[in-house]
Amino acid sequence: MKKLTYILALTSLVSFAQQTPAPKQTKSILIMGGTAHLGNGRIQEDCLISIIDGKIVTVADGKLARPSKHDIVIQADGKHIYPGFIAPNSTLGLVEVDAVRASDDESEIGEFNPHIRSIIAYNTESKITESARPNGVLLAQITPRGGRISGTSSVVQLDAWNWEDAIVRENDGIHMRWPSSYARLGWWAEPGGIEPNKKYDEQTKAIQLFFDQSLGYSNSDKKVKDIPYDAMNGLQSGDKTLYVNANGEKEITDIILFKKKNNIKKLVIVGGYNAHKIADLLKENNVSVLLRRVHDVPNSEDEDVNLPYKIAKILTDKGIIVGLENAGDMERMQTRNIPFYAGTCAAWGMNKEDALKLITSNTAKILGIDAKYGTLESGKSATLFISEGDALDMKTNKLSHAFIDGRQISLESHQTELYERYKDKYEAQGTKPEVKN
Amino acid sequence: MRIFKLLIVLLTVNLSFSQDYFPKNDGVKQTFKNVVAVTNATVYTSSNVKIEKATILIKDDKIQEIGTQVSIPKEATIIDATGKTIYPSFIDLYTEFGIQKPQAKPRNSRSPQYDSERNGYYWNDHIRADFNASENLNYDENVAKALRETGFGTVLSFNNDGIVAGTGLLWTLNDAENNATRILNKKISQHFTFKRSSLSGQSYPSSLMGSMALIRQLYHDAKWYAAGGSKTKDASLEVFNQNKNLLQIFNAGDKLNILRADKIGDEFGVNYIIKGSGNELERIEEVKKTNATLIMPINFPDAYDVSDSFLAEQVVLSDMKFWNQAPYNLKVLAENNINFALTTADLKNPKDFLTNLRKAVELGFPKEKAIAALTEIPAKIANQNNIGSLKKGNLANFIIVSGDIFDVKNTIQENWIQGNRFVIEKIQPSDIRGKYDLTLDNTKYDLSIDGEASKIDAKISQDKVEFGTKLTYNEPWITMVIKGKDSVSSKFIRISGFKSETGLSGKAILENGKEVTWTAVKKAAAEVKKEEKKEEKKTPVFYPVTFPNMAFGNNSKPKQETILFKNATVWTGEKDGILKETDVLIENGKIVKIGKNLSQKGKVIDATGKHLTAGIIDEHSHIAISNGVNEGGQNSSAEVTIEDVVNSEDINIYRNLAGGVTSANLLHGSANPIGGRAAFIKLKWGYNPDEMLVKDAPKYIKFALGENVKQSNWGDVERLRFPQSRMGVEQVYEDYFSRAIAYKKEWDSYNATKGKIAPRFDIELETLSQILNKKRFITCHSYVQSEINMLMKVAEKYNFKIQTFTHILEGYKVADKMAKHGVGGSTFADWWGYKFEVNDAIPYNAALMNNVGVTVSINSDDAEMSRRLNQEAGKTLKYGGVTEEAAWNFVTLNPAKLLQVDDKVGSIKVGKDADVVLWSDNPLTIYAKAEKTVVDGIVFFDIDQENAKNEMVQKERNELINLLLDAKNKGLKTQEPKKKSSGHYHCDTLGEKCREFHAKYNN
Known about the structure:
The complex is a heterodimer of chains A (437) and B (1003).
Chain A: H1 2-15, E1 29-37, E2 43-52, E3 55-61, E4 72-75, E5 80-83, E6 85-90, H2 127-132, E7 137-142, E8 149-157, H3 163-166, E9 167-177, E10 182-187, E11 190-196, H4 200-219, H5 227-231, E12 241-246, H6 249-261, E13 267-271, H7 279-284, E14 288-291, H8 307-317, E15 322-324, H9 338-347, H10 352-357, H11 361-367, E16 384-387, E17 399-404, E18 407-408, H12 414-429
Parallel strand pairs in A: 1-4, 1-5, 6-7, 9-12, 12-13, 13-14, 14-15
Antiparallel strand pairs in A: 1-2, 2-3, 5-16, 7-8, 8-9, 10-11, 16-17, 17-18
Helix pairs in contact in A: 8-9
Chain B: H1 2-11, E1 36-46, E2 49-59, E3 62-67, E4 77-80, E5 85-88, E6 90-95, H2 141-149, E7 152-157, E8 164-172, H3 179-182, E9 183-193, H4 208-226, H5 235-242, E10 247-251, H6 255-268, E11 273-275, H7 284-289, E12 293-297, E13 303-304, H8 309-312, H9 317-325, H10 329-335, E14 340-343, H11 352-362, H12 367-374, H13 376-381, E15 398-401, E16 412-417, E17 420-423, E18 434-440, E19 443-452, E20 455-462, E21 465-467, E22 469-474, E23 477-483, E24 492-499, E25 503-509, E26 515-524, E27 563-571, E28 578-587, E29 590-595, E30 603-606, E31 611-614, E32 616-621, H14 651-658, E33 661-666, E34 674-677, E35 679-682, H15 689-692, E36 699-704, H16 726-753, H17 763-772, E37 776-782, H18 785-797, E38 804-807, H19 815-821, E39 824-827, H20 845-852, E40 856-858, H21 869-878, H22 884-889, H23 893-898, E41 916-919, E42 930-935, E43 938-942, H24 943-969, E44 974-975, H25 991-1001
Parallel strand pairs in B: 1-4, 1-5, 6-7, 9-10, 10-11, 11-12, 12-14, 13-44, 27-30, 27-31, 32-33, 36-37, 37-38, 38-39, 39-40
Antiparallel strand pairs in B: 1-2, 2-3, 5-15, 7-8, 8-9, 15-16, 16-17, 18-19, 18-26, 19-20, 20-21, 22-23, 23-24, 24-25, 25-26, 27-28, 28-29, 31-41, 33-35, 34-36, 41-42, 42-43
């Protein structure tokens, strides 16, 4: 009996640590009978998915294909299977508690910081991160904030012992915040309107100068190493993507001109609230958009009250590759709501499978990880999950299984553990206490 | 000509006399001042009495006689004013003219200052009742001149600084004499504003509602002080009481603030004269209902420079519309028979005053009303009978205008104040315009003088060769400079002369310096120039006011309808559960029938495949609030109420309706343990704040616990206010509730014994007594279980219960205790991670509390989330698996229960208010859209109208941008596309830190 108590105590102790990363998958897995949302716009009913060595080997119609023998067979009848959702432009693991400065590592001082690398500060044991996984978010682009050039991001998977293990694509892109041509006055309770930013030209010139210098440096003999200029290498070759944060029509237009002038191979607009107004220009220049948080109010009181819900569709209809990002207030904790941003886009006119692409294949393409992630297709990483129902709807987003590179990850979290603990407490108390008035 | 005019003014002879009993050391004493007769003028003796060919006889500072039958004494100096129009000089009752403004002492500390710096005065330094303008004078001749040139003769001056800003004086703009003569009334008015004094850094009040509460408490204290209640002296209260019979002038500003000032006035029996801002037409009915006399500025916004289309995007429709509408404001006020005077206040340049006034008149503001608003009305308000009209015995304060003052061509030429003549532009009684034969140095030329009477031009020619000529005429002198025959040379003929009987003659100095005489004989009258073809006058377009006056406003306030929803899936929220294929009839603002196949009545809406629910009630909202949600200047602010500051013009009302929200409980922020009182409103978009308030709903107050009230995230400078720990928070409550008990005892014993002097009425403790008497209920911002438990224990000790814990993210940890206490939990669906105290926040909170028997609601605390509360309710299906009906009640019936309005709203039940929403789908799914949102039987949102409304906004924007561009092309003044800040209040005390703090962590 004593021994049992001891074991119980030990288990409960263990259960309150972070979720243990799942070990490498050595077994083959077969998922049968579910509806697979492939992430490429297609659905496969009664789908048969075979996973071997952490990779998807087969995605087939269950009525036609005959399953071979697998170590693990998951019957998913009535359930839905999705590729793991991706959170781009994210600060997961860089800040734990917004208001606690000691837990905040998302930005560095200085203006031009391409050499600042988010990956080394990425905390794989963030409790916030583990609360995003049970909603289907399995990958993220860890991105620094602040300054004019904030730094360099890396793409990670969300179940790892340390940042090195977590890397999916290291140093994938450089993030820049384009100046705004106007400034907003006032504060949230008393917005005071706008005024032109008189320093706009000066600020954009400073960016150009920095790019000129870094290009000059890369062509020089580099006798003396210049760390920031050195870190800029790769934008012209396409090894790195340039992510530029901007929302205004004028700013985005200027950025596209900037891209041409500087021969930037891969450019992504982050934010892009007004991108739909110059969609053709974006399309012509092969620029994709990581659209700002869908669950937001319009910028202006004059705008369609539901405009933020509709922009993704307008851009998609114009042939632009759109992913959804989530920067802003409480952005880390809101990561778990990314599926519902896509759901809202679907509610406001987008085809559901196209809406799904906004958080799967499109984002994977934008981040340059689409060879392995973003769709349920043979040859790709088995980074996927099974949900009781439609995962874009909070009503039915309930995960039973999730896999990253074939490893079956825990769907528990600090939060589910507290839930279980207090549920047990009240169940042990028995019936509801009498309510006095 | 222009330069000359200025000179004339400077040369005006000073005919004034010093006080006759004063010694004279710089010469002999002179006391004679001749009588002056201004003759042959058209005189407006008042706004509606006009006398032609009248004479005004002026003796000393007064009008001795006026009329057409005046006998002019032989010694009188006569001024012929033929063709001129005379009006009483204008009166401005709202200026800071000539006031020596006290300077604030620099503050060294960055920490907030909670106490007053002065002693012997009121506890709050923003009450500056003791400031008397008449003791801080610095008569400014330059400003006086500018005002005189605009037509003003008398002004009221005060220092517009502080919530009570002290007294004002009435004085004339009489440069010729000194204050002994100028001052007509040394203490005429007591002034109020909603703004803090620039002289004090005292942190309270930091919000509009705080200012309002402070004014109320001041009235109570003044009454108590007057009755002898205070044991100590208070210099502020003493003068405040002494000054209560003066004019009480309130600088309200925005139209809604007029209603707010008037409300305070009604409560304390004071009829404020209220200074408006120019946007009264947006809520004209309500402004009219106040019956207040107004003082109106006429500063029309400059056109926005919209030539940069990107920046133009940033100007909102409401601002563009207001640019169009503002010049009509006075007309609308006049049409509504609102009594008002005009002021130059708020104008950057007093010269714009006449320009704007003329524009208002051109657009329909009646001339006589304009004159009255500048003369007899302000005189009457000021109770100053001897100004504002021209009659025997009145002060000789009048302006001489070259004609009708409202005609752009005409100018104010003289302004007489207290019998002193101030020439602005010399009257030119003789007209020298005509065609002349000019003989100069034995050569004949043609001279032609023409142009406007006030701006004449000369042309000299010989055999069709013209000579460059410049002429100035200052009767009787004529001077001309003529460029020599040799056009390349820079030599000139200089001519001077004067008008004689036959023409003009005088002396000339030739190019070579030789002096000769010249004559010019008139041969013909000047050619009358044809009126230049004026640009065809476009009929001005007036964009009608909408309710509210902004994008998505209604053309008129929407009305109640009888509506039959046919064949809906009805989520009753009651025992009946969800009824399929059911009809619901609403009539007279109530739900009257629920059933199958109801007979047709009213407007029938086919709701097949759709879902009808009660409207969403947001238990914790901060939308629709003017100028500050926190009164954080003290650790308790029970005296303030959001009901004072409901803002009916917030776009978030409409956005919330589009998300199916029909009511919102507007809460004070969480900056202090005892916050302010709440306002429960229905989202009646277009209606005024008073109509939105649900008056008979039980009253609430916001309390708060944890990091915000102990200022954890406010920075290191904010370490002065008690409490700084959770331990201290308990003691704040102990302190206030025990004081409230003592307070109540004091009043009870006074009421029982009918004692002599009533105890001090303390709004804050009154509010806390209401809590103890179960007449007011607490909704408390809370996170951590320890403090939640503490507050329940405090309440139990004082024998009441907490009604609601809001946020309550650790409620699940003490749900059993909450259920036992009987407190509800109004929580977020899934928020966490934003500060330390939400580490253990879990999205299963709602489900756990619900399962243990706590009444649970899901609230927003956020203008974005509030329009998706249906989705937030949907999350509770995922987190904890509550039933669909229970989840839906989290945003409808349960908040209604927590707010104790569930007898009226929150479910679909016969007899309840018709606050319903028609959804496209199951409202708990992400795919559901609110299609129709109905409040009190009035459709306030209809998705079918959305396209039309959006198109309308775009159409009006386009039209107005074109009008703005047109205005710019015409050379009208423009401003950068900057939205005019409508707020008068800023978070002064907490500054930038406050902004950061509120934006990030004030949840």
